[in-house]
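User: For a benchmark we're assembling, each entry needs the component sequences followed by a predicted structure for the full assembly. Here are entry 17's components. Please fill in the structure.
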Amino acid sequence: MGLNKMNRTADILADKIVSGFSMEGTDWIPEGATEPAVVEETAEAELAPDETLKEQIFSMFRHNKLALVSAIIILLFIIATIFAPFLAPHDPNVQDMYNRASNPCEGHILGTDSLGRDVFSRMLYGGRVSLLVGLLPTTISMILGTALGLIAGYIGGKIDNIIMRIADVLMAFPSLLLAMLVSYTLGKGMLTIFIALSFVGWAGTARMVRSEVLSLREKEYVEAATSIGVKRSTIMIRHILPNCLSTLVVLFTMNVPGNILTESSLSFLGIGAQPPSTSWGLLVFEMKKFLTQAPIPTLAPGIAILILVVAFNFLGDALRDQLDPSLKD
Amino acid sequence: MGKYITKRILISIPLMIAVVLVVFLMLQVLPGNPVSVMMGEKANPAVIERVTEQMGLNDPVLVRFGRYLIDALHGDLGISYKLNRPIATLIGEAFPNTVKLAITAALVAWIIGIPAGVISAIKKDTLLDRFLMGFSLVGISLPVFWAAMLMQFIFSAQLGLLPISGYTTWKHMIMPAFVLGWASSGTIARLTRSSLLGIMKNDYIRTARAKGIKESLVVVRHGLKNAMIPVVTMMAMQFASLLSGAVMTETVFGIGGIGVLMVSAVNTRDMPLLQGSVIFSTMIIILGNLVADILYSFLDPKIREQ
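Assistant: Structure for entry 17:
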């Protein structure tokens, strides 16, 4: 449901509210996090922002075991779904009419669904949808949001006004409602969800990037670049964008779980993935009637969603603490 | 202060009109005549043409939008294609259920979230803090439909304690309130914790401690009082979001609220109903955010002084 997405954005926004309030709040920044932030402003970091970012992420994994475990879980999910054809014990579409909606039994470790198909195998394939929806529309919406946020923040004026007012309108909608509207117009199915999440989710990113740009454009090195006549587009891409990178990494990790939840919710409502293709949300939806008869195959896909989303959220929290404490306080 | 509130209200009005326009355009760009959808395939083309003309559907989009906006302001959101009843009436019937769910869920969220956040902040970096924050994060990560079904399985199917769905007695209200409340409590707990930790860094807290005031009093009277300002704002925003319809919870528990109205409108392709209910929901959220903003300016002395 949209509430989770809303919580996410609200989380960030509300944290911003706190920032205007608390004094310094360096309390939550783990050791070492403040130093790189300072380094970033020097010319050295300017030349090789990727390396410091990489180093920061590596040092986070060394110190934060929870983040490491989360990252490993996410990787395992990705590997499992990529190699689904090799790992699945059964063909996900083969039906066994004599063994429908059964609890775990011989040959079916998580039982079978309403048509006697192996739930574990279907979950492996269904995970592809969840991960794809988590990663791809998030990427598209973030590229869009970054571009628009850069333009709005750096060029300013009328363009800034237009972009941000559109963002305001989009952000007034809960994401689930917008996805429902789009699915009404474009028809049910995965493509609709992709479009809805890609072209709707950019607003939050744009707002974040814009505020980042507003402070970065006042920096001396931007002024220096402007004064020697560097083109505006070059300044945006070469000088400002690299310094937004850590914020973007954090935002990306925080947006993915929201999109995974929205997809599973829509699929559960019958608006998302359509049979014969599958997704975790759709699996739960199809088994809804068999909850008391076969609880394990009905509830198992939901546990997969929960684990994946929790892992992304833990990773996002850790990245935020490490890379961009400003998002928190 | 008065100026600030006036400004906030004035900003909200164009936003509301823009939201109505977006919903209107998204649903009107569809090819196909709604009248023929409404009458079915066997309808006489001449009749379809006449009704289309009567309903003013041949007018330009902006004219229709203006008409819709004026009607909406008079409380007329049109008539449902499938249920053949005024949409305002349908929303009026569904809304009390949504309100009940929102109030109970918000209460659960606050009762869990605020103490969890305060305890976490006081016991920072202990096992208890980790546990409470883990619990909150799981709440934020919860696929609500799944949590709802899990509870149905445990408390209705296995233990037989609570009714599995419907929304008539107080027993029906327990599970939905808890599921939605848990999902919402995570945000509150995390915000309470970070806000309180931020406040406890301030000089006046050190002064209070130096004066020898008991630690519990320092936390409650000096810390919490200020730390709650952003939390209360958040609570208002979240409550608005709950009031706009909890689509998943309502669907699983069979609660006839705004969320179910929207889902059924999508599934039966009832355009005016979808349009009306989505606009209604979004208006509540915008109004809720406005209230939260105004509340914040009342609570925060820094803004109040201005």
